[in-house]
């Protein structure tokens, strides 16, 4: 089997968050499966999510040189087969940190435009949702987020992409009596993502 290189991009202000633990679970499982893993911890890497003039796309110039940080971070993707993005759902979408990463780093001429090195990668999105799946479905959020992310993947020409949700991350839903068991189930679900990139 071909050696797989995985790159996990994640966003959370707290090192001991559930999001951070989920990242560790995926990382541990990937290592057990013989995958090389590296991570980009957006908060602790000092990443600035604000798109400024230097990184604004020039639609007439797909060769535009962006800030060194953008080229450095986009360069980190080049030798990876699998990209995994892990984040808590905030206001039914991405945290600003992750949104800023996408706006700046997955830029015109790099991630999209004439050609993209992302096209041939496996991309997995894992969203941690405070509320229940029933609530998320009731108000259309699961479909909205799935369509939005899959739509963006289609725009980039990525064929092998998937989004998955970990629900009840706050663990308050009625019927969740065994909190520890509930979190273990979420970790199991998170680890199963690794199998999908080995297929
Ligand atoms: C600013 C903010 C916005 C949030 N918005 C939502 C939301 O729209 N829907 C939801 O179900 N949970 C929402 N939550 C709850 C988070 O999804 C939840 O805290 C997270 O998944 C738990 O993981 P963590 O312990 O790693 O933060 C929000 C939390 C924060 C801090």
TrEMBL record:
GO terms for MF: oxidoreductase activity
Upper taxonomic lineage: Bacteria, Pseudomonadati, Pseudomonadota, Gammaproteobacteria, Enterobacterales
Keywords for the protein's UniProt record, in alphabetical order: Oxidoreductase
Record-linked Pfam families: Flavodoxin_2
PANTHER family in the record: NAD P H OXIDOREDUCTASE-RELATED, NAD(P)H DEHYDROGENASE [QUINONE] 1 ISOFORM 1
Protein name, UniProt field: NAD(P)H oxidoreductase
Occurrences of domain Flavodoxin-like fold (ranges): 5-185
Keyword Membrane: no
EC number, as in UniProt: 1.6.99.-
